[in-house]
Amino acid sequence: MIESRTNENSIDLLMQSKQLVHTSYEVSAIQNRIFYYCLLTTQKEKNGELCCHVKLNDLKRLIPNKNQRTLANIKKTIQILKQTSLEFEKNENGDRIECDYNLITGSEYNVNKETFKIKLADRLYKHLIDYTVYAPLSLDILTRFKSFYSQRLYELLRLWSRTEKVIVKSFKIEQLRFILGVENKYPEYKNFKQRVLNQAIKEINQFGNMNVSIEEIKNGRKVDEIKFTILDNEKKVYFKNNIYNPKTDSEDKINDVDEPTNTEKCISIEENKVSKKEFYVPNKKLFTKATLERFKNDFMNYDFKDDTYKKLLQESILIALERDDEENIKVKSYNFFKKTLENKIKSLSKKKTVPAIKTRFHNINQTFNQYSPDELEKILLESQKDKFR
């Protein structure tokens, strides 16, 4: 693992351009660490020579197994990088162009200085130097992943994530297979999910300072795309000055909301922290971490300490849990829960009364409006306790 830096402006941070994130290749996690380090060094040197210089000892630190930290093994890794295809598509004058380059084009080893000179293709170098849209990748985090698939999926999610804000983003299965380099592996979806997707998400949640959950979107009986719910706790803007500070994330707009400036981002994050801290949520345990954040963002303007709103919330939770027979509000049921609560609040604002809604809980003839908020809370907790004892 790369040693941590005390100086914030000297952090090992790779600005991975959107174009490079959307490429396809496959190597081992260790080989990819070395590739990342070469990209980072190239970006730092920015010498215009389509190359970078890396020390042997720096590459050795990227390899956890001491027995593999040999010159011969590192030379072999560089040889593999030279032979590995980097595939992507581009549009040129209306034509669709399929591109196939190598991760690196060549290398030279200075025996006296124990330093490698790594050469890159001109197009790869251009994306490293002249980028505008990027995913900021801390090598300290990247080197925690044991799986190549975790590294690549983390890149993709970092491109779209926002700091401490829940983002929902969908990707076609074919797109995920391409980026993760498994177009010709694990042809059955269940194998792809088990061996690639689930393992990558598990590692990202464990080591990536990020919380990720997924929902499968089907076209008929076939899973056609994956909807990711992303809560990223890692910074997107690392520096207070303008160093490494082009536009982050995608040029596209998420939910038709324009991207704020970096200064606005910092201010909004701090304001959001304060408002979330003050926002009262009864029955927190009945949400997952991701859906709790989404609930805070969606209903920030309502005071659930108020008995009327608290009661509407509890009714909506009961309805959603009953519908899906779950112990808490999960990502797949959140939209139903949200719509239920929104309709109740809208109905309340029109009628100024709480509507009577029948439920299958306990006695089918009873209605929610027969209970106080405290009684509803007791029913809610007891019903879940009995169900999942």
TrEMBL record:
Entry-linked Gene3D superfamilies: Winged helix-like DNA-binding domain superfamily/Winged helix DNA-binding domain (1.10.10.10)
InterPro entries attached to this UniProt entry: Initiator_Rep_WH1, WH-like_DNA-bd_sf, WH_DNA-bd_sf
Pfam families reported in the protein's UniProt record: Rep3_C, Rep3_N
Domain Initiator Rep protein WH1: start-end pairs: 15-157
SUPFAM superfamilies to which the protein is assigned, alphabetical: Winged helix' DNA-binding domain (SSF46785)
The family this protein is said to belong to: Belongs to the initiator RepB protein family.
Record protein name field: Replication initiation protein
